[in-house]
Amino acid sequence: MTPLGLDTAVATGILTAMWFAVVIRIVVGGWQGITLPARMPAWWPLGEAAWRGQRRATYVVIPFSGSFIVTAWLALANSHGLVPPIVPVLSSGVVLILMFIMLSITLFNRPRFAVPRGMWSERGAIEGRFSPEKKRP
Length: 137
Known about the structure:
- By secondary structure, the chain is mainly α.
- The protein has helices spanning about 5-30, 50-55, 60-80, 85-110, 125-130.
């Protein structure tokens, strides 16, 4: 097995620096410093429901991206024999759990504890597509 190279380390280092820049912005300005604007920008390709869902999932994006970066570093360390193979696998499990929570917030606005309090009353992307008057009896 060939160990991961310098290009992987550089890419992971850049992601780490970007993540720390966002975390510093949160520490200095609070969550409002990274909250996405209410209006969907013209460049967003996934539609308004996905934009609102991404806004609701803001609190989960930071731990998700952090665990993704930790997993990348652990995979790099594993390829050089510094950690056992089970460690990056377990870290990948954390990434998958957080990705499931983000998707759940986007589609259903659940679990509420991970959604900013002011957005609890919003409907998820799935709930918003099917209004009560369209339901069959």
